[in-house]
């Protein structure tokens, strides 16, 4: 007995220490190696190169036509190239790709944040993959007037070392077209513990992808129908367009440091399946706010909870940027879908084209105690009625069922 407990103790110590050794080589949260493309190639940047030839990009492997571009540079048509951060970025030509190996923790979920701009008006999209996971990000929609945006996608690591690949799958006539990418960062995602009094996971959106302190555009979260592997743990982004993940450094955030701005009207839905107990009465409450980004009002959200849907207009008072909204519902199953989208398609008042919308934060689903009291009072009444007028009670019950059918 003593021997086996000693072995257990050793094993415990080993398990305690070993992860610290193994994490030493992990790719840290933040910019990946030369993720901003500012590192000088051994043969100089293309703008200063004497001889033509393929430019090596430190820390990256390239395939096809990959170019280092500089801010202020123009393409042959005279259009100024957009460089999202710093002075250098890369442009991927038709079928071109860049990749680098990142060291991760097998089985963990990671978010990759990157900035992307399109160069031509044609449909441009970028494929980001960590094989076998792969996701195409549509760069067609310009979410803001600056011409570029940070995006985030996520993956679950199936190995300890995985290639992170950015590829332009487009085949465009103009070889000078193709997406420009910059500022590539990685972050290991943690799913927060669920508090006892709230069924919503990551209810305040505090857990999410990497955000750069100096970037004021938030991070776009494209469609992600897999709640297990989402850049916003617990949440899914449904439908065709993105929602914007915002930070309190640059936006008015109702609670904590992060929130979500619904920038795509009915085409940008965030949702979560929350655990519920059938036939119990619940309240969904949330903060509805204005991001403080000159977004033109009216702002409104449609909030869904089970079979309930309710529209809320943002009507702030003078000393707050948000208000509390709530929807009552009766759970019909062990999981209930809650969801939000913006009722309107809003743009900023200053440039009339950057997309914006209402902010949602601090989402809670809890057993409604007030309603529970009302319900128990009603139950007592019904029980009394049941004793006195049994046939009538059965009739009520049937009516109630048919009403339920109508609403579900
Ligand atoms: Ca928050």
UniProtKB/TrEMBL annotation:
Residues 1-25 form the signal peptide. It comes from Gossypium arboreum (Tree cotton). Pfam families: DUF642. Keywords: Cell wall, Glycoprotein, Secreted, Signal. Residues 30-187, 222-365 form the DUF642 domain. It is found in: Secreted, Cell wall. Residues 371-382 have a biased composition (Basic and acidic residues). Residues 371-408 are annotated as: Disordered. The keyword Signal applies. The lineage of its organism: Eukaryota, Viridiplantae, Streptophyta, Embryophyta, Tracheophyta. Residues 383-395 have a biased composition (Basic residues). This is DUF642 domain-containing protein.
């Amino acid at each position: 007995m003593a021997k086996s407990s000693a072995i257990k103790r050793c094993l415990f110590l080993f398990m305690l220490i070993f992860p610290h050794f193994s994490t030493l080589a992990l790719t840290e949260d933040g910019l990946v190696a030369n993720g901003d493309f500012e590192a000088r190639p051994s043969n100089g940047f293309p703008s200063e190169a004497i001889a033509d030839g393929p430019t090596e990009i430190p820390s990256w492997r390239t395939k096809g036509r990959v170019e280092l571009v500089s801010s202020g540079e123009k393409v042959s048509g005279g259009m100024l190239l957009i460089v999202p951060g710093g002075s250098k970025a890369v442009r991927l030509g038709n079928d071109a790709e860049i990749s680098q190996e990142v060291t991760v923790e097998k089985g963990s979920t990671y978010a990759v944040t990157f900035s992307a701009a399109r160069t031509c008006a044609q449909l441009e999209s970028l494929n980001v993959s960590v094989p076998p996971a792969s996701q195409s990000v549509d760069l067609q929609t310009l979410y803001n007037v600056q011409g570029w945006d940070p995006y985030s996608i996520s993956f679950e690591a199936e190995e300890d070392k995985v290639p992170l690949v950015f590829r332009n799958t487009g085949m465009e006539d103009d070889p000078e077209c193709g997406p420009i990418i910059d500022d590539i960062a990685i972050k290991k995602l943690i799913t927060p513990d669920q508090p006892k009094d709230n069924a919503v996971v990551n209810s305040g959106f505090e857990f999410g992808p990497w955000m750069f302190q100096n970037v004021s555009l938030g991070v776009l979260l494209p469609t992600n129908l897999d709640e297990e592997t989402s850049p916003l743990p617990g949440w899914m982004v449904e439908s065709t367009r993105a929602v914007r993940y915002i930070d309190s450094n640059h936006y008015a955030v109702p609670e904590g440091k992060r929130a979500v701005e619904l920038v795509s009207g009915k085409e940008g839905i965030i949702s979560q399946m929350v655990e519920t107990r059938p036939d119990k009465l619940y309240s969904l409450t949330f903060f509805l706010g204005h991001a403080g980004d000159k977004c033109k009002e009216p702002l409104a959200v449609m909030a869904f909870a089970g079979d309930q849907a309710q529209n809320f207009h943002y009507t702030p008072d003078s000393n707050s940027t948000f208000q509390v909204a709530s929807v009552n519902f009766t759970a019909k199953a062990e999981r209930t879908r809650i969801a939000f989208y913006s009722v309107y398609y809003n743009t900023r008042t200053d440039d009339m084209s950057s997309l914006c919308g209402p902010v949602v934060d601090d989402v809670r689903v809890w057993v409604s105690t007030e309603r529970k009291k009302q319900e128990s009072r009603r139950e007592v009444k019904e029980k009394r009625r049941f004793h006195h007028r049994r046939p009538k009670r059965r009739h009520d019950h049937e009516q109630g069922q048919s009403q339920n059918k109508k609403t579900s």
